Amino acid sequence: MELDTVLMSRLLTAMTLGFHIIFATLGVGVPLMISIAELIGIKKKDPYYRLLARRWTRGFVISVAVGVVTGTAIGLQLSLVWPNFMQVAGNVISLPLFMEVFAFFFEAIFLGIYLYTWDRFKNQYIHWLFSLPIIIGGGFSAVFITTVNAFMNTPDGFTVENGTFAAVNPITAMLNPATPTKVFHVLSSAYLTCAAILAAITAFMILKKKTTAYYKKALKLTLTLTFIFAVITAIAGDSSAKFLAAHQPEKLAAAEWHFETEEGADLLLFGWLNDAHEAIGEIRIPKFLSFLAHGDFNAEVAGLEETPDEYWPPLWVHYMFDLMVTIGFFLPAVALLYLILSKLKKRDEHNKGMLSLIVLSGPLAMLAIEFGWIYAEEGRQPWIIRGYMTVEEAATSSPHIGLMFFLFLALYVVLGTLCIVTLRKVFRDNPAEEELEKLYPSVEKGDKS
Amino acid sequence: MSYEIIGVSVLWIFLYGYLIVASIDFGAGFFAFYAKVTKQDHVVNQLIARYLSPVWEVTNVFFVFFFVGIVGFFPETAYYYGTALLVPGSIAIILLAIRGSFYAFENYGSKQSTVYTFLYGATGLLIPASLSVALTLSEGGFIKETNGTVSLQYLELFTSPLSWSIVALAIVSVLFISAAFLSFYAARAKDYPALKLVRNFALFWSTPAIIAAMTTLIFLSQHNERHYESMLDLWWMFGLSVGFFMIAIWLLYRGKLYGIAFVSIMLQYLFAFFGYGIGHYPYLLDPYISIHESATHESMGIALVIAFIGGLLLLVPSLILLMRLFLFNADYVKGKK
């Protein structure tokens, strides 16, 4: 029964986090997109962009609500499901947790203000200014909570005395070795994903209805942002790999099925493992792992053999890593293709094939977030605090955890379904064209160019 | 003053803040549902929605703040309360999740559904009931630790008159505080039909609120004599609490100065809540967790206090701005903006 409790605790947490990060990602990234659209709208005196900001906001509120309630759930579950972990680690990580709540508080206050003051100020920039605290609050929530996760990967800022943490330095714990690359990667990929999702929704609307000036402008803006953030995310991913090679070599080695320490290590894509732990059917890029890990094609990369077997992460994380990276290359490629097509006069960038690719990139971006997190979390197994506490030692001893798992499963199914139903209803009952006429009657009717 | 005393005082203040803002929110949800069932929704629901929409998320943060803070300052609480509260805590999370998200689905999603309103109203009363379990547990006697395993004694909990009287107190207080606030808000909006309705709610719920407070005190004296005795030493706080209650009822009855009536109710609960809390000292969980033994390391405690001050410098101006824009903006309250 002992093992079952641990497994159910892990599943419950994985499910809650897996559900929450969808909405958390939207919560971090979408406000930036809204703010950019509103700013362009005010600067260019272009009602299309301002309508874009309004409509995105309307959808955003609904996802925020789910993000808030699931965030509350994960916050409480940390103590309910992992009481032994919080008892020990609470001494070291409560500062960033506390600060995260402050950032969230800040965001919540200004989100309320932003939502209910659209036409309240004569100077339109005042309303736009209220979007900045939302972006800052959302961004800093992500930063603080990521430092907690970084701490669990590379614990720092304490000494161990009699089995408990002593001489705690909260700031050192927050600024542990994993923090810079993790924060960079989390933020850039959240912005990328939101840009890609908004682009996908726009492309879907064009496919379903027709090309109007409103959707064209939206598509161009979102794909430009997708491209920019995809490039930044690629840089972030590269620095994350170099961090892993230096500080968490077993995680990188598990992702790459790199068993023996060697120089000039190859990069493996996909394939599968036979019983002798040899990769079959893989795509092999010679010496590229060394380059990824150390920026030098002949550098030595530590293999899994350096880590005792019982501390190996599960080897299936390889697929998570590969899928994440593959999508990471697919997204900028699609965005770039669109941008090139739109520059070529003879080509129509709104053809079916192009639009379908864009529609596809939205869900793929969110999947990449999920794959990336699964890789990051499973790659640290069997540790909850790497090197100090395993997940088995941290889980609750309560026998009711299995029941709780199914209760929460039901909750997330209901929330997820109703969220989609509500979002569809919001937009279907209120098409952009009608709203544009209502809000900005000065815009010429029938602008369908 | 030591950092753990500062810590627990700050947390208690936040819990009190949550008690007030959440009561307004929870009670309003119930009244909105009640008004719909009794076909009076056209009278009050507009009023309720205008107040709740911009602030519901802020209400939620007060709660998150408290539980993150208590685990931060007193990590031992995670071990005992975390293990024992798995089931009641999870139920509270689920209720909060249903409530928060359904509010958004209904109000921002342009869907008017009686089912949503019902769930919104019902959870508003169940959440205080499930959260108040934590207060009951803190009195001791419901959590057992044997061979390093912490377990909650459900039978004792469900058969204890103390736990039921705390649940009753939580629910009627929610309705009383909320109705008093809505009276104030309706008076500001000069919405007289709504005012008449919510004022009656406030007067009606005042009696059970004071009765539940008395019964809780009696059952507490039987369950935890130490706590009861130290509360008796603070008799003047409870005297002030009763005094403010009388002022509030008189003002509500006379139908004037609703703002002062609501402030009196806030003070009534402030003194009662702090009298209760100070009487609890030095235990966070009788007898397992005491404030001084379970506090986090000093460096972390100081860092938390500094973070707290920095956070307040950011939050207080923002909250004032929020209130000026919505709560105390006469045109907004009247529905003109």
What do the pLDDT scores of chain B average to?
81
Strand order of the largest sheet of chain B: 1-2
Distance between the termini of chain B: 47 Å
Please compute the radius of gyration of chain B using only Cα atoms: 20 Å
Query: What is the approximate shape of chain A?
Result: globular
Protein name (chain A): Cytochrome ubiquinol oxidase subunit I
Family (chain A): Belongs to the cytochrome ubiquinol oxidase subunit 1 family.
Transmembrane segments (chain A): 20-40, 60-81, 93-116, 128-152, 183-206, 218-237, 316-341, 353-376, 401-423
Subcellular location (chain A): Cell membrane
Features:
heterodimer, A: 449 residues, mainly alpha, two-stranded antiparallel ribbon, 15 helices, 10 strands, disordered C terminus, B: 337 residues, 4 strands, 83% helix, Cytochrome ubiquinol oxidase subunit I (chain A), transmembrane (chain A), metal-binding (chain A), electron transfer activity (chain A), transport (chain A)
What does this structure look like?
The complex is a heterodimer of chains A (449) and B (337). With 449 residues, chain A is mainly α. Chain A folds into two domains: 17-176 and 398-448, no CATH class; 185-252 and 292-393, no CATH class. Chain A has helices spanning 2-44, 47-81, 83-115, 124-129, 131-153, 170-174, 179-208, 213-247, 249-256, 288-294, 317-343, 352-378, 391-394, 401-428, 432-439; strands spanning 159-161, 164-166, 262-263, 267-269, 272-273, 279-280, 283-285, 300-301, 383-385, 389-390. In chain A, the strands form five sheets. Chain A has a two-stranded antiparallel ribbon with strand order 1-2. Chain A has a two-stranded antiparallel sheet with strand order 3-8. Chain A has a two-stranded antiparallel sheet with strand order 4-7. In chain A, helix 1 (2-44) packs across helix 12 (352-378) and helix 8 packs antiparallel against helix 11. Chain B is mainly alpha-helical and 337 residues long. Chain B is globular. Chain B starts with a helix and ends with a helix. Chain B has a two-stranded antiparallel ribbon. In chain B, helix 10 (235-254) runs antiparallel to helix 11. Chain B is 83% helix and 4% strand. Chain B contains 14 helices and four strands.
